[in-house]
Design a protein that fits this description.
Blueprint lengths: L2 E3 L5 E3 L3 E2 L5 H14 L3 E3 L7 H10 L8 E6 L6 H15 L4 E6 L9 H13 L3 E7 L3 H10 L6 E5 L7 H9 L3 E5 L12 H10 L3 H11 L3 E2 L6 H8 L8 H8 L18
Parallel strand pairs: 3-4, 4-5, 5-6, 6-7, 7-8, 8-9, 9-10
Antiparallel strand pairs: 1-2
Helix pairs in contact: 1-2, 1-9, 2-3, 3-4, 7-8
Length: 274
Amino acid sequence: MQYVTLNNGLRMPQLGYGVWQVPDEEATPAVAKALETGFRSIDTAMVYQNEAGVGRALAKSDVPREDLFITTKVWNADQGYDNTLKAFEDSLKRLGLDYVDLYLIHWPTPEFDQYVDTYKALEKLYKDGKVKAIGVCNFHIEHLQRLLDECEIVPAVNQVECHPYLQQQELKDFCKQHQIYVESWSPLQQGGEVLKDDVIVGIAEKHGKTPAQVVIRWHLQSESIVIPKSVTPSRIEENFQVFDFELSDSDMAEIAGINRNERKGPDPAEMNNR
């Protein structure tokens, strides 16, 4: 495993396991398999409705709590200062934990304009020692800038959709300038067209790896945190086997050339679902 050091000194595995769209009852064996494979970072959220399933896997695991890195998120309908504090306690109970390592705002939902107050609640949770680090998801530069201007603590992480067809270089540059780590969700474009791209397939063949492994390796070498999701045991193992090869500078340049600025998910400026 490779680790990154967040802006508050906390170490975080650079490769994690995501459970978006995994039903609660499937989350327990899937997370157990991920932990058995070697994953130590698990990424969930209240809205995924599988925090309890994740918690059951953690309770059964013999991995010490201090070796785990658990992320969850406050949902849009729970934003606002007091609502966020309550939502966090509810998440903690479902997970069966005393603290989480990283707590994130799931979307800025700019139409409702509550994300600054929500982030101030995260700052309180951080100061109270209930979370080890705080951050955001799906924040554009303008949303991040507002937090930098109006809040005390620089977000440790901005988790955003990122894959070779949506490389987010301008956002990555801004985050790097402010010591905010970018974490990639849908890193394999939800198993989409990018895994069949001629460039990715060609690089995979050259290294004797799968297209998914090449894309995960690209994220790692782009200095992003990455959280691929699968419930298939063989794919969970495959997604972990990315530390025994390296993409060359020409490989990285080829992948840089296939960016389309193409989203699979919503644009954060327009995503206001409660």
